[in-house]
Amino acid sequence: MIKISREARGALFFLLCLILGMPAVSCGPSGSRREIVQRRALSESDQLIKPDATSAERFGFRPAGQSSPGGSRPQNPFRWDTPGQWSESPPTSMRVANLTFGESGEGECYLTAMPGDGGGVEANLNRWRTQMGQPPLSETEIEKLPRKTLLMQPVPFIEIDGDFTPMGASEALKDYRMLGVILSFDRFTLFVKMVGPRDVVESEEENFDTFCRSVRIVGTDDGANP
Q: Count of CB atoms within 10 A of residue 76's CB?
């Protein structure tokens, strides 16, 4: 089982709080909770709203291996291996890793990280099923799902065929397949979701496994860091 150091968990939780604009909360020696608040004056450029900004630009993340002038921006704590035929795109919205595959890049696979339970494993798996035009699963059915590996943990794996309706779309994309896993810790939850034309996704399932197994966090105690 992977062991994430207390420092790494704390740093990751703080970075995820930055993503959602949440206040970080700490416990004092007596167990009392106190809010950690950091205030700074915003420059004119900081105050501008940039609706087309990526998550890295919006929240101050920088890709792994990329230097940051003055060291003022926190580094994305996640690392992963990109399968050989896949392409990596800049992060968008809440996606930490954003990958595409297929002859025309018609398939996509991405990693999302959220503080807390992210809404819950069951709710998210069934939300994905709804996107594919399929009925929800019961708690018992979810417990019986096969497992994949993410951060060296066994996690429920869902495979759904159907007509995919992306968020905000009015029409469904026919004959699609979705693969997904969710890993929930006490302070954050990870999601890996892969979707595309059924035949394209079917041919890339082994690479989905490879990507999931490769995901790691800087500061883990198992020596998996690059």
A: 22
Do 37 and 26 form a contact (C-beta atoms < 8 A)? no
Cβ pair 11, 219 in contact under 8 A: yes
Paired with 109 in beta bridges are 99, 194
pLDDT tens-place string over residues 69-111: 444 445 678 899 999 899 998 887 678 999 999 999 999 999 9
List the one residue out of 218, 168, 178 whose CA is nearest residue 200: 178
Domain limits for position 64: 6-71
Residue 161: which CATH number?
3.40.1000.10
Amino acid letter, 154: P
Closest CA to 151 of 105, 101, 102, 96: 96
Residue 140 host element (H or E): helix 139-143
> 148, 155 in Cβ contact below 8 A?
yes
In a domain, 222, yes or no: no
CB 211 within 8 A of CB 83: yes
Q: Give the closest residue to 37 by CA, choosing from 5, 8, 65, 14.
A: 14
Question: Residue 159 is which amino acid?
Answer: E
3 close to 222: Cβ distance less than 8 angstroms: yes
* Residue at which a domain ends, from 44, 71, 98: 71
